[in-house]
Write a structure and sequence with these properties.
229 residues, 3% strand, 10 helices, two-stranded antiparallel ribbon, mainly alpha
């Protein structure tokens, strides 16, 4: 997707992603000051802070108040620039959900048959971290992504991580901008994640596939609901 087809917030996130993916910074490194980033990217303070919040929700950076912003993982430009179908943001996300259903349901089914004990433990740990953050804050976008990443890894095919992460990046951009000011929408599927873990841990691929589809039905409901406001 070319830069001119992105919304302004997406374009700024894309520029920050490109800046961070140049190899100059490694996970754990502290990023330049806010003023230096504003100058490097030629953006205002509010736009930069919004972009950083988006990347924080995606697990790319971590803001430590009083200390600074740190890189948590190397970002991929494809997370932001995935070529979704042309159209309004809501319509593009709904089209992308068709692809997510096919990929993610199969990844979950494979995880149920291929996951090692260590991979199952990682899924459990990320689930509990997500549940704790959700109970405390009412949302857990970053932790949700880590939970699903653990499932993709357990499918033991790195292409699932590559393709699904690229598509999910657009959804994180969408939800990170609306959940904070919502009336509870955007969080309706969190309770079902434990059922997905249980299906994978029980080595039941069909149950894992169906639970994933159920979770994505919730995502579709939220996208449609947010799109009306």
């Amino acid at each position: 997707m070319e830069a001119e087809q992105l919304t302004k917030p997406q374009a700024i996130v894309a520029r920050l992603t490109e800046f961070l993916s140049g190899g100059k910074y490694a996970p754990g490194d502290q990023l330049p000051t806010e003023k230096m980033l504003m100058q490097a990217l030629s953006v205002g303070r509010s736009s930069l802070r919004e972009a950083i919040r988006t990347l924080e929700a995606m697990g790319v950076v971590q803001v430590r108040h009083g200390t600074g912003t740190f890189l948590m993982r190397a970002p991929e430009k494809s997370e932001i620039l995935v070529p979704l179908a042309i159209g309004g943001e809501r319509e593009s996300l709904l089209r992308a959900l068709d692809i997510r259903r096919a990929l993610e349901s199969h990844a979950s089914a494979l995880a149920a048959t291929r996951a090692s004990d260590a991979q199952l433990e990682r899924i459990r740990v990320t689930l509990e971290a997500m549940e704790e953050t959700y109970r405390r804050e009412g949302t857990a976008l970053k932790e949700d992504m880590q939970f699903h990443l653990a499932i993709y890894e357990a499918a033991n095919n790195p292409l699932f991580e590559t393709f699904i992460e690229a598509i999910r990046g657009q959804f994180l951009l969408f939800f990170s901008g609306v959940v904070a000011s919502s009336d509870g929408r955007g969080t309706s599927s969190f309770d079902q994640h434990r059922e997905l873990y249980d299906a994978i841990a029980a080595r039941d691929p069909e149950a894992a596939r169906l639970k994933t589809l159920e979770l994505l039905d919730h995502v579709e409901d939220d996208v449609r609901s947010f799109g009306k406001h």
